[in-house]
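## tool: complex_structure
## caller: assistant
## args:
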Amino acid sequence: MSVLQTSPGVNRRRIANRIFALLCMMSVLFGIVLLFLILKEVWDQGASSISHRFFTEPPSRFPEKAGVQSALWGSVWIVGLVALISLPVGVAAAVYLEEYSRKGRLSTFIELNISNLAGVPSIVFGILGMVVFVRVLALGQSVLAGAMTMSLLVLPTVIIAAREAIRAVPSSMRHAALALGATKWQTVASHVLPTALPGILTGVILSLSRAIGETAPLLMVGAAGYIAFPPSGPLSSFTVLPIQIFFWADLPNPGYRGPAAAAILVLLAVLLTMNAAAVIIRQRFQRYKP
Amino acid sequence: MSAVAGHSSQTPSLSQRKLRWGEWLLQKGIFLAALVSVVTTAGIVYVLVTEAATFFQHYSLFRFLFGTKWSSLAPPSYGVLPLLCGTLLVTVGAAIVAIPIGLGSAIFMSEYATPRIRSIVKPVLEVLAGIPSIVYGFFALTSVTPLLKHFLPQTQTFNAASAAIVVGIMVLPMVASLCDDALRAVPNSLRYAGLALGATKFEVSAKVVVPAALSGIFASFVLAISRAIGETMAVALAAGATPKLTLNPLESIQTMTAYIVQAANGEAVQGSIEYRTIFAVGLLLFVFTFGLNVLSHRVLRKYREVYE
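## result:
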């Protein structure tokens, strides 16, 4: 321990203090600067490839003719199906855990399981999907198989977000409904869920934005790099934006970096829109809060 | 779930009797929804273990775990050490980037930043966390690798270092955010006590606040490492596809995750021994990440200091 006796010691401590503050500030700046560097790099490489044609053309053997039409529609299909699957299942699971389950070994086990599942690498979900949905359920390398795999992946985050929203509903509301003779389910359906809805939606949108950027599981399920047409139904083959980016960036021909960066810009724009939607819903929710 | 509606004879309480069959059905339905996650975990374990078991009938576990050559060319050799080595290189590199910078950012946010600066910095880091990993892979390929090549000309086009750096940037926001939570949970009275004794802000941060939040900080490091091990796309794009037992980060390597992607998209025939390697490697990956996640939970629960 240094003792406050001599002034040289004090000086050294003062200098150490300054340096430390500077280092901490630089750490934060590192993250911020990198974010801008990444965005700038993508913009510089991709902005010139963005045109009306880029959205209406399928991928091509020629980089200057390549477009993201099929990939964009593939992403829309995936997100739509994932929302259709994970929203009801996730909200139902959250309602069970928050409103119905008695605190016991089973609910603790389920909770532990959900938090562990949230930490499993996405590619492991891909392996599961490849075996169960593509092979055992014989869905083939289809949009549906991809969406089901992705739903399992986002389910833990949807459940966790929905539980938080449900927990935030004051119990006085439940008591009021129950006191008027409503059954448990009537209470949940007429009071708890409507009040929790904005919170649930915010969480679900954020989970879906994760699904839109994920690549590895869909690669395992068999999304391909050269799909000329948008999916025509749940069982048709597909590609999505991140996969298209992967295949383009992976090509030895550097000419494909332009379309890859442009596709990243499209992807980031979609993500930004979804996040903005989540923020807006959250703010509206706060406005109506009693 | 085989009980019949209305026959809840064990608990003849009023509320149980009055349960309508529709409500009973709903209750069971949402219980099944909650079970989906349990079934998913069971499914993952079942698929990985059974398929890997078939692999190990054809290839000895010992040679898999301790073999130093990974190649599907004849004669095939599936020693996993080169893939482990690749994963290790990327993970260690990512930890070197993410841990000090993440902790530094967290200390800045909780100890130094005014609420206003904090309200700017935190969302920026959240945006960084929200960028898909494929974008980081692209950035590694087009920016980080050329930069490395500029300073170290012997750098290969695909190399572990550039992948490690971007994976580090990727997990940095998570480290920063979790450490920030841990640091902010330390009560101000501890800080005031240190400052009142004449300690500088640096001394209070390094000798009082960080030690008090150590369990949370350590847990975040473990989670970050687990994330880095499981990270796939940035690594598949930037680190290369050559399984190699090397500790030189400037060389092309292959991680476990990148191998799984490559094998699933390659021409490995379904049911062949090469196809089954996916599950053996996947099982190993699952065991590592699961173990680290459990460790992180344990650390948090066991060593947590609870303040009033």
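## assistant note: Chain B touches chain A through 88 residues (CB under 8 Å). The radius of gyration of chain B is 25 Å. Handing back to user.
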